[in-house]
Amino acid sequence: MPVSIRESKRALRERVTANRGQLSAQALAAGARELRDLALELPEMATARRVATYVSVGAEPGTGPLIEALYERGVELLLPVLLPDYDLDWGYYRGPSSLASAPKGLLEPTGPTLGAEAIAEADLLLVPALAVDRHGTRLGKGAGCYDRVLARLAGQAPAFVLLHDGEILDIPIPKEPHDVPVDRALTPSGIHHLRP
Ligand SMILES: Nc1nc2c(c(=O)[nH]1)N(C=O)[C@@H](CNc1ccc(C(=O)N[C@@H](CCC(=O)O)C(=O)O)cc1)CN2
Ligand SMILES: Nc1ncnc2c1ncn2[C@@H]1O[C@H](COP(=O)(O)OP(=O)(O)OP(=O)(O)O)[C@@H](O)[C@H]1O
């Protein structure tokens, strides 16, 4: 990939990460509750029996309250398990004690995993990101994990990027051939339709 694209993505990641570092614990907790309420109200959520999400860490848009609410509803929750080649395997959420610290500061499900292709069985996908632009180009952690997941999903289930307010950028994020656009984002202030 051209060095300039890699470099501008890196600089953008640094900027967003620094901004996230300024968010207070109270703001993060409030944002997570707002994301829960919005996600639970999605029409697509009403019919979803299996939802793939991630266990938020640090200053990421929080998924804790949503995971608990969906678990209580009896929705099956698929959580990612990072593989050595940065592809993602998946495991079920089986309650708070079923998560364990994993490499790279992640929290992952313990117990058997289902294989990378299990994502094809999800009815709805909640995707982590650092930012997205108005065209739906997504900036992730830079390992291409979710580019592979979204390619596998092939639009078969709705995908929503979870972000903090201010992380939907008016300037375009440099797009590479492997980047799979997303068409919707959730921030604490609401649902945002993007135009891939
Ligand atoms: N909470 C959470 N879980 C997730 C993701 C995520 O974004 N958030 N992922 C989304 O893809 C996958 C994990 N992907 C990762 C990809 C790269 C690195 C990584 O290279 N980390 C750097 C530090 C960068 C950072 O702190 O952001 C490193 O360890 O050097 C970590 C996780 C699956 N689980
Ligand atoms: N389908 C794929 N298979 C293997 N590697 C891939 C695939 N898609 C992307 N990659 C690799 O991932 C690397 C990072 O890509 P990019 O910077 O777009 O990640 P990102 O979208 O920020 O991260 P993520 O998808 O993990 O959130 C690239 O070097 C790319 O080669």
Distinctive features:
alpha/beta; single chain; binds the ligand Nc1nc2c(c(=O)[nH]1)N(C=O)[C@@H](CNc1ccc(C(=O)N[C@@H](CCC(=O)O)C(=O)O)cc1)CN2; binds adenosine-5'-triphosphate; seven-stranded mixed β-sheet; Rossmann fold; three-stranded mixed β-sheet
Write up what this structure looks like.
The chain is an alpha/beta fold and 196 residues long. The chain has a single domain (5-193), classed as NagB/RpiA/CoA transferase-like (Rossmann fold). The protein has five helices and twelve strands. The strands form three sheets. It has a seven-stranded mixed sheet, sandwiched between helices. Strand 7 (131-133) and strand 8 form a beta hairpin. The chain is globular and about 45 Å long. The model has no long low-confidence stretch (mean pLDDT 96).
If you compute it from the alpha carbons, what radius of gyration comes out, rounded to the nearest whole angstrom? 16 Å
Low-confidence stretches: none
Ions, cofactors and other ligands present here are: the ligand Nc1nc2c(c(=O)[nH]1)N(C=O)[C@@H](CNc1ccc(C(=O)N[C@@H](CCC(=O)O)C(=O)O)cc1)CN2, adenosine-5'-triphosphate
CATH architecture: 3-Layer(aba) Sandwich
CATH class, named Alpha Beta
By CATH, the superfamily comes out as NagB/RpiA/CoA transferase-like
Secondary-structure element order, N to C: HHHEHEEEEEEEHEEEE
Domains (count): 1
Helical proportion, percent range: 25-40%
State the helix count: 5
Strand content: 15-25%
On the 0 to 100 scale, the average pLDDT is: 96
